Amino acid sequence: MAARKSRRSRRRSSSRSRRSSRTSRTSRSRSRSQGRKYGTKAGKKVKRAMHEMKRGTLKSGRSGKKVTSRKQAIAIGLSEARRSGAKVPRASSGSRRSSRRKK
After folding, report:
1. Is residue 45 part of a domain?
2. pTM of the model
3. Rounded CA gap, 82 and 85, in Å?
4. In a domain, 97, yes or no
């Protein structure tokens, strides 16, 4: 009876370690093949927007109000990067919907 328990526990531990090594290998190879999500130009635009926001000189679109939110500053930087042709993923569907409504 004791021998059966030890065999079972050995099986469980070995299957766990195999599972974790599989997932890490697939995620590593996926990230290498796809490359970076954002280009360096996009990073520079966001960095500049954040810097302006901290100084208090970053203004939002039509209204020209001062930007106080960190998320808004990042969004402005990314949209500027998109306009200039930097490597940036498409905007999320939620933000695309809201921008259509405003127009």
Report:
1. yes
2. 0.56
3. 5
4. no
Residue found under tokens 């099986």: 11
Residue 44 covered by a domain = yes
pLDDT digits (tens, 9 = 90+) for 39-56: 999 999 999 999 999 999
Q: Look up residue 78 and give its two tokens.
A: 């990314």
Question: CA 89: distance to chain centroid?
Answer: 9
Q: How many Å apart are CA 45 and CA 16, to the nearest integer?
A: 44
Q: Read off the tokens for 19.
A: 């599972």
3-state secondary structure of 63: coil
Alpha helices in 35-60 (DSSP H): 40-55
Are 77 and 49 spatial neighbours (Cβ–Cβ below 8 Å)?
yes
- Structure-block tokens of residue 61: 């679109």
Exposure string over 57-70, b if 16+ CB within 10 A, otherwise e: ebeeeeeeeebeee
